[in-house]
Amino acid sequence: MDKLVIKGPCKVSGKIPAGGSKNCALPVLFATLLSKDEHTIKRVPRLADMDSTMKMLVHLGAEISQKHASDYGCDWTVSIKTLRNKEAPYDLVRKMRASNLCLGPLLVREGSTRVSLPGGCAIGARPMDLHLMALEKLGAKVVQEAGYIEARIPAGESQLRGGHVIFPFVSVGATENVVMAATLAKGETVIENAAREPEVRDLCEALISMGAKIEGHGTSKILVQGVSSLRGMNFVIPPDRIEVATYLIAAHMSGGDVEVMGAKHGDLTHVLDLLEATGAKVERLENSIRVSSSGKITPVDITTAPYPAFPTDIQAQWMALMTQAQGASVVSEQIFENRFMHVPELVRMGAKLKVRGNTVEVEGTPGTLQGAPVMATDLRASASLVLAGIVAKGTTEVKRIYHLDRGYESMENKLRALGVDVERTVDS
Q: Active-site residues: which are they?
């Protein structure tokens, strides 16, 4: 099992390219199930989650080829002319919860499917209830049995029908699943309280490139007019806003200066505004974002919420930043009930943190973190520990970085390009 060894403190400075968005690539790759034509998806990040996605698609019958187009990311060609299986088994789904995004596409393509429930999640409950409710609104018959979701189009019907879906709360995955299913349903589907995340918007753009008729994506009300068939897509995965934010935060908390090439500032408006409030200099350039540190970090409270508010996927990194602020701040988590598992590990490094329910009180103490062996518990927690190790005095060992490999492509290479003393080694 690999670990990252970081010798700090380091100043993070330089230029790096933005990687492709993991959270966009996942639903886009599962959307290839909607058409028998060949698909080309460019700038897919090289991540463990993409490997899991490939295994699932191949299991279902896909033929996939990859071409490395640059140092980061690769281009996929996907063809699924014939489905070999209509079942997504537990052994594949358990490795990546997003595998449940095959539910909607398989249902509308084949008329029935059997998809394993994904099981537990380290950062909190992520039930499938909203996915199933939405598909039932489109006429699907759904049952849960023996750890599987079994969904089918009713007897006597040739396809799903458009429906009116009102989500009681925002769900990115459920929005994505029902949008994909609705593209091949009969008539119009109206989705209210839909997720507005850029990744949902970009999935809809990929579907539109396939011939889908979708309006309102990027807002809380999405309209989908079903079509009889879809063609292959030719789509470029956009930059990963979470990865971009992680490196920009690293620049500010280390007293550095980083420009992320290819980044879109429009998808990070709230985060960039808050970085400026902490004292960072932020340049929103035409095809990049640059953040340089002022040398002083002002404490700023954050509360996670659905887009366009502060992303839960940047909460842990922000907490690491606040450990270097001059004063107290509060981090509130409103999305997941168990997303503070990085707190004990940051405390091991000298951070002064107090958990009170769904909030963490941070007493900023610049320059006092000490290197230590720490354990990664989930993807974004891993990133926060790496950021802490960059500014800590001495050596930090971040163990179990297979979590990190799910969302950050070759992080150690990018960090080295930015001046960080870091290496990947095998944990003994």
A: 121
